[in-house]
Amino acid sequence: MIDPVTGQLWTTVAAAGVEDIDRAVQAADQARATWRRVNSRDRTRLLLKLADLVRDQIDVLAQLESRNVGKPIREAREEVELAADCFEYYAGAINKVGGQTIPVAAAGTSLTWREPIGVCGLIAPWNFPIAIAAWKVAPALAMGNTVVLKPASQTPLTALRLGELALVAGIPPGVMNVVPGKGQVAGEALVNHPLVRKVSFTGSTAVGSQVMRLAAEDIKRVSLELGGKSANLVFADADLDKAVPKALWSVFSNAGQDCCARSRLLIERSIYPDFLGRLTEQCQALKLGLPSDPQTEIGSLISQHHRDLVRQYIELGQQEGATLVCGGEIPTTPSLAQGAYLYPAIFADVRPQMRIAQEEIFGPVICLIPFDTEAEAIQIANHSLYGLSGSIWTQDISRALRVARAIETGVLSINTGHSVHLEAPFGGVKRSGLGRELGLAVLDQYTEIKSIFIAE
Ligand code: NAP
After folding, report:
1. Cβ atoms within 10 Å, residue 226
2. What CATH number should be reported for the domain holding residue 262?
3. What was the pLDDT predicted at 419?
């Protein structure tokens, strides 16, 4: 592991090969029968215990995550807390979801059971490692599946600790397996393994599409949480005191490495100059710093390589004719110079068809696009291959609902920049993904429905 703040080797982690994945999948397959025998009340207790252990270890886990990803410790703590909440939430769901009895025409009783799918291969990205691992592991285990989790090769540390804590909690060996390794080796081996019945993948659209092709061979169940290029629509009647800081934070949290980043900021032309002025002022006041410093607002990017990719988009935007209003430079202050830091950037005068307005940059870059009418705002928002998230800012509730209905996306927020809630479904349309995570909706994706008919 390279520390993104120092650029130095920090620790090393084994990388699984194809045989290691096979051993993990075999272990998960053998543990299926044991896990199915654990009754619903005991399964609930075990997941609650795991939630408690995660919460007890919040300092250690947050420090690991912050150092591994370069994210501010404040954000890392919130994400560990979310992971613990997630185990609690799905522990509570275990004895509340079940099948149905259905009034069929034939004489008899039709009923359904929800059954576990089997071994689930879970593949996570590097931007929110422990949170996204928990989003997958918790509902999968809750519904009686066993799992093999492959964290991103850059960020395996909290996932490995989570695996240890599962054993401490008393979850039987083999039920939750964590196998770090390279995507093209361990990831592909997991997706290809014949004993894996379901794959849940979070990552880029390009790899997601490849995962779907591989999984097609055995008709594996697949859910995909992929990239985004979400729009934030601000109408002239919006409360700008709230909309401006939220517009900033709905891109710059986690240094912009967020699939939900509302990085296309669509502003009604009459308020465009005022909005841009306030946004720029607040952007320039953001505090870049060491991830371990509680005052830090923007940490490091994941790696120097990733920062180079983001920097290429800064150069591309200028070549395309957008105006770089602020940011985009590499800090030269001695405490930050070795890290993968980048000053958050704002581009104005962006046209919707520019590449910086179409491609996921996955870094701290906002693209401002003016619009004149509601219809034009909707048309620009939908002019994207993606459809993950987005926001609408207006005091007019009719307009808010009308626009929300018209926007092609999986998740939306009105008058806030935040739309990820543990209890509500989350996921994308178009090339942003397939299926939903979180809420009770995800439980459908970790169960098969068996339909039984009893004749009278
Ligand atoms: P990525 O390169 O697609 O990698 C995601 C995971 O897939 C990693 O564990 C990776 O392993 C593994 N992988 C790579 N190639 C694979 C293959 N051929 N077969 C199976 N697994 C493979 O994505 P990332 O760079 O880690 O994450 C950033 C992307 O994730 C962005 O596009 C972001 O929008 C998206 N994301 C989406 C959501 C959502 O909920 N919609 C949430 C977070 C992130 P390695 O680490 O070894 O490459």
Report:
1. 26
2. 3.40.309.10
3. 87
Q: Residues 336-353: pLDDT tens digits?
A: 999 999 999 999 999 999
- CA pair distance 456, 451, nearest whole angstrom: 16
Asked if residue 258 and residue 217 are part of one domain, the reply reads: no
* Structural domain contains residue 4: no
Give the pLDDT mean for 291-319.
Answer: 97
DSSP letters, 350-370, are --TTSHHHHS---SSEEEEEE
Query: What type of residue is 268?
Result: E
Same domain for 446 and 327:
no
pTM of the predicted structure, to 2 decimals: 0.97
Residue 142 lies in a domain: yes
Determine the distance separating the centroid of ligand 1 and the alpha carbon of 124, expressed in angstroms: 6
> Are 87 and 197 in a shared domain?
yes
Domain annotation covers residue 134: yes
- 153 C-alpha vs ligand 1 centroid, how far in Å? 10
Rounded alpha-carbon distances, angstroms, from residue 160 to 80, 210, 235, 295, 309: 14, 26, 45, 28, 28
Do 66 and 191 fall within a single domain? yes
Q: 64 with 161: CB under 8 angstroms?
A: yes
117 with 55, same domain: the answer is: yes
Q: CATH code at 51?
A: 3.40.605.10
Determine the average pLDDT of the residues in 216-236. 98
Angle at 155 between CA 154 and CA 161, to 5 degrees: 145
**Whose CA is closest to 418, among 258, 295, 299?**
258
Query: Residue 264's closest CA among 163, 381, 171?
Result: 381
Clarify whether residues 221 and 235 are in a common domain. Answer: no
Structural domain includes residue 277:
yes
Number of domains in the chain: 2
Same domain, 283 and 361: yes
Atom of ligand 1 nearest to the CA of 426: 40
Give residue 239 CA to ligand 1 midpoint distance, Å: 36
Looking at the fold, whether 413 and 444 belong to one and the same domain comes out as: no
Range of the domain at 409: 231-421
Ligand 1 atom nearest 433 alpha carbon: 41
Report phi then psi at 387, rounded to 5: -165, 70
State the Cα–Cα distance between residues 19 and 315, nearest whole angstrom.
43
Please work out whether the CB of residue 225 comes within 6 Å of at least one atom of ligand 1: yes
pLDDT tens by residue, 124-154: 999 999 999 999 999 999 999 999 999 999 9
Task: Band the pLDDT of 385: cuts 50, 70, 90.
Answer: very high
Per-residue pLDDT tens digits for 48-64: 999 999 999 999 999 99
